[in-house]
Amino acid sequence: MEKMCADALPLTMNSSEKQEIVCIFGTGDFGKSLGFKMLQCGYSVAFGSRNPQVSSLLPRGAEVLSYSDAASKSDIIILAMHREHYECLTELVDSLNGKILVDVSNNRKINQYPESNAEYLAQLVPGAHVVKAFNTISAWALQSGTLDASRQVFVCGNDSKAKHRVMDIARTLGLTPLDQGSLVAANEIENYPLQLFPMWRLPFCLASVLCVFFFVYCAIREVIYPYVNGKTDATFRLAISIPNRVFPITALILLALVYLPGVLAAILQLYRGTKYRRFPNWLDRWMLCRKQLGLVALGFAFLHVVYTLVIPIRYYVRWRLRNGTITQSKLGYLTLILCTAHTLVYGGKRFLSPSILRWSLPSAYVLALIVPCTVLVMKFILIMPCIDKTLTRIRQGWERNSQHSKSALNGKSDI
Ligand code: NAP
Fold first, then answer.
1. In terms of CB atoms within 10 Å, which of 16, 67, 171, 331 comes out highest?
2. How would you label 2-23 residue by residue, b for 16+ Cβ within 10 Å and e otherwise?
3. pTM higher than 0.85, yes or no?
4. What is the dihedral of CA 121, 127, 133, 139, to 10 degrees?
5. Over the chain, what is the mean pLDDT?
């Protein structure tokens, strides 16, 4: 009967059922938290430590032994230590023979070492069955029980029996094991925790570039220009007025950039006549970080709302909270249309008036409208029935190439 952790499903363990012993090497943050969780879920835990006598703050009920003594207690050993310390296992090679070694380690950088930590471990202890698992679960989440958003445990290993034992443990802890295949997948699994942030890198870089550009642009028009032309000191605008122009502009452009890759992808699919060809890498990367782009846009819209509502504003129109709302698909487009319309209304006749030019530079809002308007026009073209019909068919798997070959057979031109 498979045990199931109390906070995952009700624990109905038979008191006569023998508790399975799991050994954990390392009494650091992760070892302690995992041990705590395992004890909660009905396992017996034997910790292996360099200093079993001085190990403190360990979960009650766990044994703390030397590495070799702990290893003899169980045929499954979870290594809660850093790769840099795996060398100490070479002294235990004989006692680790035939055991399941679970590698939970992560690195500080993507592809930090030539081989994955799990493969390195398998080379150090060739007689053991190495399984990679648990590296995407944090010690804090294990201890605090806040695993809701991250229950997935990616598991890989060359020995399928060993892998399934580890997957059973993960299930018992209330986690969701995902079999990723052989140990070759370990490198990718080790990179997962490090890949979370890069999704934000492009949105943050874009937002910073847009902010700096529009801040300088507005400063030239609204601070430097009045000073050069009329010796008017408008530096007070740098603190509130200009940032409060830059935030909505950045939000609007970022929001448009959420939808631009989708539109470009649709054009590419129409051009290629198939959905079965990879998008260029830059487009793939752009599509993958759309959610983050949208959230950064929302952040800027929120800043704009805070500035507009909290700080006493003298002369600009108040923007409404709904302008910052990002939702998926159609609602997202509706938000983009509303924000663009709002900017157009805000600019009103001033957009077209030569009097607003400063050194031939139009108002920053005019520039802010370029990307959103381009996206909306392209989207409008794409939803025209004749184009939308073809695009929908392509997305349902239809390929133009098959028609091409027919027409080629009939001796017709291909384009
Ligand atoms: P930690 O707090 O630094 O603990 C590492 C443990 O390794 C030490 O407590 C020590 O236990 C043992 N160790 C063995 N040889 C050692 C040596 N020569 N020098 C120092 N320590 C040695 O690290 P951690 O945060 O628990 O992380 C342990 C592993 O879990 C790492 O590979 C990490 O990537 C992985 N991990 C951690 C988390 C997390 O949230 N912390 C999440 C996922 C994966 P003894 O003193 O008892 O010997």
1. 67
2. ebbbeebeeeeeeeeeeebbbb
3. no
4. -70
5. 83
